[in-house]
UniProtKB/TrEMBL annotation:
Database matches in Gene3D superfamilies: 3.10.450.40
InterPro entries registered for this protein in UniProt: PepSY
Record protein name field: PepSY domain-containing protein
Signal sequence interval, chain numbering: 1-29
Domain of life: Bacteria
Listed Pfam families: PepSY
Residue ranges occupied by any PepSY domain in the UniProt entry: 44-100, 128-185
The keyword Glycosyltransferase appears for this protein: no
Keywords: Signal
Length: 187
């Protein structure tokens, strides 16, 4: 009797384990699809519109970074900027332009100057769209784009797009004005 009870317990455990694994695989596949869908198909607000929302809130500042990412609220833009004394951040709903959160913080004394502001501010003229950056990055890295950052390095404003293909992730840097691929590197 005891041996039979042990066999039934092991069988139930194996069944639960198999059902749990198959449910987890289904969830991971749907996460991949929804991640790609969120950033390419469900955003209704362009990067240019997010920049305008930020600039309306903080008109006398320069933008230093823009990020599009998935959050528990759905897709959001995080826009950061500075002036001579403070740094600012605004989180914007990428579906309806609503400001979710905004903050201000005083800059460190060494960062409080015109040179820092000039060196860190992005060139926002003639930006390629998020969808165009996604297309370029996905072609270059053969996967689905999952995260976008607009940054500046050595005077060049560029999109840094994280692309995922299975378990592999790559970062693709794209000139934000010309669309030229600057670099593809594995994460």
């Amino acid at each position: 009797m005891r041996k039979r009870f042990l066999q039934i317990t092991v069988a139930i455990f194996m069944f639960v384990l198999l059902v749990g694994c198959s449910t987890n695989n289904t969830k991971n596949a749907s996460d991949k699809v929804s991640s790609s869908k969120v950033l390419k198909n469900t955003i209704k607000v362009s990067a240019d519109d997010a920049i305008k929302v930020y600039q309306k809130k903080y008109p006398k500042t320069d933008i230093t970074s823009l990020e599009l990412e998935k959050s528990f609220r759905g897709p959001v833009y995080k826009v950061e900027g500075i002036d001579e004394l403070r740094e600012y951040q605004v989180t914007i709903n990428a579906k309806n332009k609503n400001i979710i959160q905004n903050s201000e913080e005083e800059l460190d004394e060494e960062d409080q100057n015109e040179t820092t502001r000039k060196n860190e501010s992005l060139d926002l003229d003639k930006l390629i769209s998020v969808k165009k950056a996604a297309s370029i990055a996905e072609n270059a890295a053969k996967g689905d784009s999952i995260e976008f950052n607009l940054e500046k390095d050595l005077g060049t404003t560029y999109w840094e797009v994280k692309v995922k293909n299975g378990s592999q992730e790559k970062e693709v840097k794209i000139d934000a004005q010309s669309g030229k691929v600057l670099k593809v590197e594995s994460d």
